[in-house]
Design brief:
- By secondary structure, the chain is of the alpha+beta class.
- The protein has a single domain (3-85), classed as Phosphorylase Kinase, domain 1 (2-Layer Sandwich).
- It contains two helices and four strands.
- The protein has helices at residues 26-38, 72-85, and strands at residues 8-11, 18-23, 43-49, 52-58.
- It has a four-stranded antiparallel β-sheet, with helices on one face.
- The protein is elongated.
Length: 90
Protein backbone atom coordinates (compact mmCIF):
# COMPACT_ATOMS: atom_id res chain seq x y z
CA UNK A 1 0.00 0.00 0.00
CA UNK A 2 1.19 3.51 -0.69
CA UNK A 3 0.90 6.31 1.88
CA UNK A 4 -2.29 7.68 0.31
CA UNK A 5 -3.96 4.32 0.88
CA UNK A 6 -2.94 4.20 4.55
CA UNK A 7 -5.49 6.07 6.61
CA UNK A 8 -6.61 6.89 10.12
CA UNK A 9 -10.33 7.27 10.75
CA UNK A 10 -11.95 8.42 13.96
CA UNK A 11 -15.69 7.90 14.41
CA UNK A 12 -17.85 9.08 17.27
CA UNK A 13 -21.17 10.73 17.94
CA UNK A 14 -22.48 12.79 20.82
CA UNK A 15 -24.71 10.03 22.22
CA UNK A 16 -22.30 7.08 22.53
CA UNK A 17 -19.67 6.98 25.28
CA UNK A 18 -17.09 5.35 22.98
CA UNK A 19 -15.33 6.17 19.76
CA UNK A 20 -13.79 3.97 17.09
CA UNK A 21 -10.30 4.56 15.77
CA UNK A 22 -9.11 2.67 12.71
CA UNK A 23 -5.52 3.25 11.61
CA UNK A 24 -2.57 2.04 9.60
CA UNK A 25 -0.22 4.41 11.50
CA UNK A 26 2.39 2.29 13.27
CA UNK A 27 3.08 4.71 16.14
CA UNK A 28 -0.62 5.23 16.84
CA UNK A 29 -1.28 1.47 16.74
CA UNK A 30 1.51 0.90 19.28
CA UNK A 31 0.20 3.64 21.59
CA UNK A 32 -3.39 2.38 21.41
CA UNK A 33 -2.33 -1.26 21.88
CA UNK A 34 -0.33 -0.35 25.03
CA UNK A 35 -3.27 1.69 26.33
CA UNK A 36 -5.66 -1.23 25.66
CA UNK A 37 -3.34 -3.63 27.52
CA UNK A 38 -3.01 -1.30 30.50
CA UNK A 39 -6.66 -0.17 30.63
CA UNK A 40 -8.85 -2.91 29.10
CA UNK A 41 -11.96 -1.36 30.65
CA UNK A 42 -11.37 1.83 28.63
CA UNK A 43 -9.96 0.57 25.33
CA UNK A 44 -10.03 -2.65 23.33
CA UNK A 45 -8.81 -3.91 20.00
CA UNK A 46 -11.80 -4.69 17.79
CA UNK A 47 -10.08 -5.71 14.55
CA UNK A 48 -6.67 -6.61 13.16
CA UNK A 49 -6.63 -6.81 9.38
CA UNK A 50 -3.21 -6.85 7.76
CA UNK A 51 -1.60 -3.50 8.52
CA UNK A 52 -4.84 -1.97 9.81
CA UNK A 53 -6.08 -2.08 13.39
CA UNK A 54 -9.33 -0.86 14.91
CA UNK A 55 -9.91 0.13 18.51
CA UNK A 56 -12.92 1.06 20.60
CA UNK A 57 -11.99 3.59 23.26
CA UNK A 58 -13.81 5.65 25.87
CA UNK A 59 -14.11 8.96 24.08
CA UNK A 60 -13.20 10.89 27.23
CA UNK A 61 -9.71 9.32 27.03
CA UNK A 62 -8.94 10.92 23.68
CA UNK A 63 -8.51 14.58 22.80
CA UNK A 64 -7.69 16.73 19.83
CA UNK A 65 -4.99 19.31 20.47
CA UNK A 66 -4.51 22.32 18.25
CA UNK A 67 -1.18 24.07 18.63
CA UNK A 68 -0.31 27.56 17.51
CA UNK A 69 2.80 27.96 15.40
CA UNK A 70 5.87 29.05 17.36
CA UNK A 71 6.88 32.70 17.02
CA UNK A 72 10.29 33.45 15.52
CA UNK A 73 11.45 34.63 18.97
CA UNK A 74 10.50 31.32 20.55
CA UNK A 75 12.15 29.35 17.72
CA UNK A 76 15.34 31.36 18.19
CA UNK A 77 15.26 30.80 21.97
CA UNK A 78 14.79 27.05 21.49
CA UNK A 79 17.62 26.92 18.97
CA UNK A 80 19.91 28.84 21.31
CA UNK A 81 19.07 26.59 24.27
CA UNK A 82 19.64 23.50 22.15
CA UNK A 83 23.05 24.76 21.00
CA UNK A 84 24.10 25.45 24.60
CA UNK A 85 23.21 21.91 25.68
CA UNK A 86 24.67 20.28 22.56
CA UNK A 87 21.30 19.06 21.28
CA UNK A 88 21.31 21.36 18.28
CA UNK A 89 24.71 21.07 16.63
CA UNK A 90 24.11 23.29 13.56
Amino acid sequence: MNKQQKFTQIYFNEADPTMEITTHNTDLKKRLRRFAEEFPELCRITEIDGGKMSFEIDKHRCSLRLTKPYSQDRLNALKSAGQKTGIHSR
